[in-house]
């Protein structure tokens, strides 16, 4: 019996070492499923250090663009993508036929919420099934999509083992949550520390070997579940603190105080506090979604995550508060919303990005349209957008336009906007981001959140 156990361990060790050798000499073939904001920068980093990378992208347009060397992600350099594609280091496919030839498969697909704020894992499940049909011995599968603790082991593992192969014996499985901050020029895929947890020690060993090839600092944790919890906690931390300052903004509004003055003074303390600022709401693919994954999972343990639930309520309330501030500003001018022309400055959820997923600016626009406002918008990064079933085109930001509209609402603080010029030419401005901070003579013209 002891000899059988030793032989089994020897065989597992052989599989691990063979994969690690391929990884170390860069002959391992890498697959990245989902070439979006997370997947494409990661695929490029792997290809840059010598791996052959196959991107599996089920959006035909994106797949064609990649194979033509055309970039669509701001955090990827155009010339690097072109060189990697031309050199045969990176290509895209729409299907999963290449999976059997790959050694490492990294999954970077969306994990949205459904209308009841419950996890929607259809993309993860569908991709895992496609991989399971083609799974072979010696492969490493890594889930990078943000999700609740237990997804890798409770959802993915059983599907993969339907192939007849066993994790930690025939193949390896880990979770290594993405930490991409779109638009961040300082912290990139390469120099942002990477958390990784395996479904067992062999999986962690294989995953560590893989990620250390391109990531400067790796943070191994005890399990895939721990790695999953790390990511949802990170974004929950941000969501709760943003909700705190948003709630402070609501209170300051009632007290007749400037929340910006209070926060600026508070943040001068050199210890025990961290800067967070209010705004028209939260957007993107992380903060509005990830905390609810943890909230949902906690119910399985008969545990109520009260901070998370309250934070979500406060943050979701902010677009309605902006609507209220718009109504007040128009009322002071003697205008009903249905007779007013309002310009929203910014549709992106974050400054200097062409991304409006979950953007609070879109929610504000929907509410103003309900009030009958004649709505215009300007965003240097987003040419057109659909709002409440209507198509809108970004208008040119001119002095004439600013004189014509009744109110300008700064919903996204893009850094390319000349705010002193804006204040000079606009009649009235509602600044939800304090983008006009430091602009001379804004008093009387600018209303802050």
CATH architecture of the largest domain: 3-Layer(aba) Sandwich
**What is the fold-level CATH name, i.e. the topology of the largest domain?**
Rossmann fold
List the strand order in the largest sheet: 3-2-1-4-5-6-7-8
Give the percentage of residues in beta strands.
Answer: 5-15%
- What's the helix-strand series? HEHEHHEEHEHEEHEHHHHEHEEEHEHEE
Q: How confident is the prediction overall: mean pLDDT? A: 94
CATH superfamily of the largest domain: NAD(P)-binding Rossmann-like Domain
Sum up the overall morphology in one term. Answer: elongated
Number of helices: 14
Strand segment tally: 15
**Which structural class do you get from the secondary structure elements?**
alpha/beta
- Count of the separate structural domains: 2
Alpha-carbon distance between the termini? 72 Å
CA radius of gyration is 25 Å
Question: Which stretches of 5+ consecutive residues score pLDDT under 50?
Answer: none
CATH class group of the largest domain: Alpha Beta
Largest sheet: 8 strands, mixed
What percent of the residues sit in helical stretches (DSSP H or I)?
40-55%
């Amino acid at each position: 019996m002891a000899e059988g156990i030793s032989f089994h361990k020897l065989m597992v060790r052989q599989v691990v070492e063979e994969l690690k050798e391929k990884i170390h000499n860069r002959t391992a073939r890498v697959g990245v499923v989902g070439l979006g904001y997370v997947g494409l920068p990661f695929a490029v980093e792997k290809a840059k250090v010598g791996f052959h990378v196959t991107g599996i992208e089920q959006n035909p347009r994106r797949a064609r663009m990649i194979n033509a060397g055309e970039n669509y992600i701001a955090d990827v350099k155009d010339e690097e993508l072109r060189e990697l594609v031309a050199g045969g280091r990176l290509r895209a496919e729409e299907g999963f036929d290449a999976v059997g030839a790959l050694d490492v498969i990294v999954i970077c697909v969306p994990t949205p919420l459904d209308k009841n704020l419950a996890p929607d894992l259809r993309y993860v499940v569908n991709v895992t099934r496609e991989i399971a049909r083609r799974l072979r011995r010696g492969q490493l599968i890594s889930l990078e999509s943000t999700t609740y603790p237990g997804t890798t082991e409770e959802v993915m593992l059983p599907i993969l083992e339907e192939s007849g192969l066993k994790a930690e014996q025939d193949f390896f499985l880990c979770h290594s949550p993405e930490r991409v901050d779109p638009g961040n020029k300082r912290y990139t895929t390469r120099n942002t520390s990477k958390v990784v947890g395996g479904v067992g020690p062999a999986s962690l060993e294989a995953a560590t070997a893989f990620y250390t090839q391109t990531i400067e600092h790796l943070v191994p944790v005890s399990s895939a579940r721990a790695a999953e919890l790390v990511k949802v906690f990170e974004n929950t931390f941000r969501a709760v603190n943003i909700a705190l300052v948003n709630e402070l903004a609501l209170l300051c509004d009632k007290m007749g105080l400037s929340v910006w003055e209070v926060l600026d003074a508070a943040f001068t303390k050199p210890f025990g506090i961290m800067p967070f600022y209010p705004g028209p709401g939260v957007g993107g693919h992380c903060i509005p979604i990830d905390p609810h994954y943890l909230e949902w999972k906690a119910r399985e343990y008969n545990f109520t995550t009260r901070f998370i639930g309250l934070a979500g309520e406060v943050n979701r309330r902010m677009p309605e508060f902006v609507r209220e501030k718009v109504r007040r500003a128009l009322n002071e001018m003697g205008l009903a919303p249905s007779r007013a022309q309002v310009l929203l400055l910014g549709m992106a959820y974050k400054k200097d990005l062409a991304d409006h997923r979950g953007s609070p600016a879109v929610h504000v626009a929907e509410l103003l349209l309900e009030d009958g406002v004649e709505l215009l918008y300007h965003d240097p990064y987003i040419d057109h957008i659909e709002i409440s079933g209507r198509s809108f085109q970004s208008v040119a930001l001119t002095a004439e336009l600013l004189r014509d509209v009744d109110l300008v609402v700064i919903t996204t603080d893009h850094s390319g906007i000349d705010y002193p010029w804006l204040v000079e030419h606009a009649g009235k401005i509602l600044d939800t981001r304090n983008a006009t901070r430091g602009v001379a003579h804004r008093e009387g013209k600018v209303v802050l959140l």
